[in-house]
Amino acid sequence: MRIIGGQRRGAKLSAPPGPALRPTAERTREAIFNILVHGVEDGDPGGQSVLDVFAGIGAMGLEALSRGAKHATFIDNAGTSIATIRSNIEKLEWQEWAKPLRADATTIGPPPVAAQAPCGLVFLDPPYQSGLVGQALTRLAGQGWIAGGAVCVVEVAAKETLETSSSFSLLDERRYGAARIIILRHQTA
Predict the structure, then answer these.
(1) Within 10 Å of residue 69's Cβ, how many Cβ atoms?
(2) CA 13, 80, 18, 62: dihedral to nearest 10 degrees?
(3) Which residues lie across from 160 on neighbouring strands?
(4) Does residue 14 contact residue 50 with C-beta atoms inside 8 Å?
(5) Using one digit for the tens of pLDDT, what is the confidence trace for 107-130?
(6) Which run of H or E residues covers position 88?
(7) Is residue 173 in some structural domain?
């Protein structure tokens, strides 16, 4: 697993052994960032605060930092994931621009100042078939983690049903093997 674009292109990322984590494949990550930069208004990570939820090894947020994001916050409820994210942040020497938080995205409270929220670009990659996306988006938006107009990139299983609140509108949807990538915009009243 490595960063595929930006200033740290080619940098290797650590991942714990075993099947516990399912990082987004490099080719899928590359496709997502191409869509964001070239096909979605305000999708370019450059200068944005980014939120990587169900972060795993932190590949999406770290990729965004490599491509110019000003800050990334990583949320995961697994201690091994947070330890791996910390290790990757230290290896890349990005401690100043990255904040890992061990928390449950479906019950999380308001963001700390260090998160630099609300965030304009959000990645969510929960376990497939978990049904956690809608709950997490609703909670994160309600607690002030997600900016109005933010672009939210969701990865679910190819045939998984996705239900979100009406404050999220569909911008794009693509299938990559066993994964379906859904890009949403957070609308505010």
Answers:
(1) 24
(2) -20
(3) none
(4) no
(5) 999 999 999 999 999 999 999 999
(6) helix 79-92
(7) yes
Query: Total domain count for the chain?
Result: 1
Structural domain includes residue 67: yes
Residue at 9 is within a domain: no
Q: How far apart are CA 74 and CA 61, in angstroms?
A: 7
- Give residue 67's Cα distance to chain centre: 14
pLDDT at position 157 over 90? yes
Mean pLDDT throughout 142-163? 94
149: left (phi over 0), alpha (psi -120 to 50) or beta: left
Q: What is the spatial distance between Cα 57 and Cα 133, in angstroms, rounded to a whole number?
A: 18
Q: Is there a contact between 64 and 5 (Cβ–Cβ < 8 Å)? A: no
Q: Where residue 97 sits, what CATH number does that domain have?
A: 3.40.50.150
In the predicted structure, residue 18 carries a pLDDT above the cut 70: no
Owner of token pair 């904040």: 99
Residue 156: domain span: 26-186
